[in-house]
Amino acid sequence: MQRMRLAARVLAMMVMLCITAVPARSAEEEARVLILNGLDPYLPAYLAIDGAMRASLANETSRRIVLYSELLDAQRFAIEPRESEIVASIAKKYSSLHIDVVVAVTKPALDFFKRHGEELWPGARLVFHGLPDPDSELVTVPPGATGLVNRDDFGGTIDLARRLQPIGHRILVIGGVSPLDMELERRARQVVPTMAGGVEVEFLSGWPLQDLVTRVAAEPANTIVLYLTQFRDRDGRPYLPREVLHAISTASPAPVYGLFETYVGFGIAAGSTEFYEDRGRLVGQLISDAIANRPPGPGSAVSSVRSRCVADARALQRWSLDVRRLPEGCDIRFANQPYWREHFWEIAAILAVVVAQALLIAALLIQRRRRRATEISLKESEERMTFTAASANVGLWQFDRTTNELWATEHCRAMFGLAGDVPLTSDRFVGAVHPEDRAMAVAAIRQGRNAGQSAVTQIRVVLPDDQIRWVSVRVRSRPDAHGASDQFSGIFIDITEQKTAELEAELQRQEVTHLMRVSMLGELSGAIAHEVNQPLTAILSNAQAALHLLGQDTPNLAEIRDALQDIVQEDNRAGEVVRRLRGLLKKGETKAEPVDVNELVNSTITLLRSELNGRSIVVETDLARDLPAIIGDSVQLQQVLLNLVMNAMDAMASTPEARRLVTISTRLTPAGSTEVLVKDRGPGIEQGGRLFEPFYTTKNHGLGLGLTICTTIIQAHGGKITLSNDDAGGAIAGFSLPARELMVAAQ
């Protein structure tokens, strides 16, 4: 049947090519027909209807038919905002052409014709199809128009489903949320519950595809699944209805039914549908009648195509549905069976009489030989696979949850420290996992079961001698014939050396970061000593003044109090400098704590005040108010800011003193991140792209590790570092960090 339809479409295309090759007749002999598509004309149903319609019109011999087409595309774009432009464009296009017949496809096209048809195509006859049933919908057909309406056979499809599944306990109806989807679902809600025969009816509207597949896969096998259409889900994602149908029918343990002929071959078991070739031929006949000005017969101005039973033999077999339960005359497609299968028992009986004994003996001998060869091959294959996996430090395992049977290679035993004589059970393997990682291992198995795909995690294994071994676990489930995921298989990979190398690399990075911080403070030692010496000098002066006042006959207590307060203030100032210096010199693990970026900038400027004064550099700040706190290590972040400011100071070594200015600003980006920018008035940076490479430097005294370490620190905090030239001269270095809420959410 499919081949016949394909041949008919090819024949129609050849006929249309022949029509276009016929010498042109006079304008009076031409009949101009405009196809006004309200929706997507490339949907499978409309393509089938259009092909059959054109094949029917190819038989018209009285006048040469010229076809035009216009697309309103109301499915994706609303017509009202662009209606004036559409009308103006069409009016200009057909200003010199007389259209004899307009074919309005779907309700948006009919409504557009009713509003503008007489203006755009005066005198044109109207033929329509693809409209809702005027008996049950608010559809007004203009006088003199003829056409076909849709009468979706919900009742016939439900009746087919009840025939094939007499013990179906519930009906699940699936649809989308586009205007077309909701219109079809609205009609289904009016009809399906009355046809359900008292069973439960549930509607799923606009579920995302992945959630929908998971939901349908959990349905029992005796559910009746009726799929309508889903052009869009509730999250706004667009689909092709057959794409959604194929996904849910592949995963569904219950048979799926549909209302449209184009669903056959894409997952439905059966349905009572309109045949689109029938509709196309009827539309072609209506166009021919309209061209010839033949009036419709009494009561035939609005008609419909009779629905017929259609089924997919492959889907029936997959869901074990008895084809004999279908009504007589049902169109069963994809049921081409070879002759020997249709007459299997007759042929088998004849062959059994002739060669029964010979075949039996030969079969037994061949089976025995093949069984031995297969056993040997399987054993050798298993040994090779096990040896190869062990050579790659990989262990293989399989687990059956229903029987609690576990199989694992000897290398798995060695990874988990299990002796060869210890019985293999899942509890023994789980018991060898570090207590803190057991929940993670169980969660990986559950994830592999639920998702139907590989789940990977890394766990620690405690050996009998208390040594720790890192193992990467990969789990995958294998569903059985009923969709149950009780069979698990996977691999164990020993990644202890990899983890050790990663730990050593991290320790080395921390050492280098600390050394760079100490080296930077070494460069600032003179400035820091001056910064500490100032409050100490002030303390000494105030102490001497206080002693002098106390030595008077009548001490001025107010002045003594002021001197003592100055001593306390300067002592706090000196202590703060020493505290910051101790924090920068201290080694330790990275700490995650709330950090005020503006306070970080001010404390850094305070630490560098003497160095800035010594180099005659002015610092200006532009700090945004109400910045959110960030989560990070204040010492490491201050090291980054110190490095960027020191680079800016070094860059202005050749800049005249009057122009030496460093501007530090903070702001909140539209993405919600906090950004810190350091701008200088130096010569700018080279545009070679190597500034972030390790050991590359443009300074005579530099190591080339500053920016590399800064980049590592900022990336570890979830941010990024930038370096660019300013259009007004100089360079702008900066870094951005996510806000506290974003960082917590990421962790």
What is the CATH level 1 assignment of the largest domain? Alpha Beta
Mean pLDDT: 78
**Global Rg:** 41 Å
CATH architecture of the largest domain: 2-Layer Sandwich
Domain module count: 5
CATH topology of the largest domain: Heat Shock Protein 90
What is the CATH H-level superfamily of the largest domain? Answer: Histidine kinase-like ATPase, C-terminal domain
User: Which word captures the global form?
Assistant: flat
Number of strands: 25
Chart the SSEs and their pairings:
Blueprint: H1 2-21, E1 30-37, H2 44-57, E2 64-71, H3 83-93, E3 101-105, H4 107-120, E4 125-131, E5 146-149, H5 154-164, E6 170-175, H6 179-195, E7 200-205, H7 209-217, E8 223-227, H8 241-251, E9 256-258, E10 270-274, H9 276-291, E11 302-303, E12 307-312, H10 313-318, E13 331-333, H11 339-342, H12 344-391, E14 394-400, E15 405-408, H13 410-416, H14 426-432, H15 438-451, E16 455-462, E17 468-478, E18 487-494, H16 496-523, H17 525-550, H18 557-585, E19 593-595, H19 597-607, H20 609-614, E20 618-623, E21 630-632, H21 634-651, E22 661-668, E23 673-679, H22 706-716, E24 720-725, E25 731-738, H23 740-746
Parallel strand pairs: 1-2, 1-3, 3-4, 4-5, 5-11, 6-7, 6-8, 8-9, 12-13, 20-22
Antiparallel strand pairs: 10-12, 14-15, 14-18, 16-17, 17-18, 19-21, 22-23, 23-25, 24-25
Helix pairs in contact: 1-2, 2-9, 5-6, 7-8, 17-18, 21-22
Give the key terms.
single chain; 747 residues; alpha/beta; Rossmann fold; Beta-Lactamase; 5 domains; 6-stranded parallel sheet; 5-stranded antiparallel sheet; 23 helices; 25 strands; 46% helix; flat; disordered C terminus
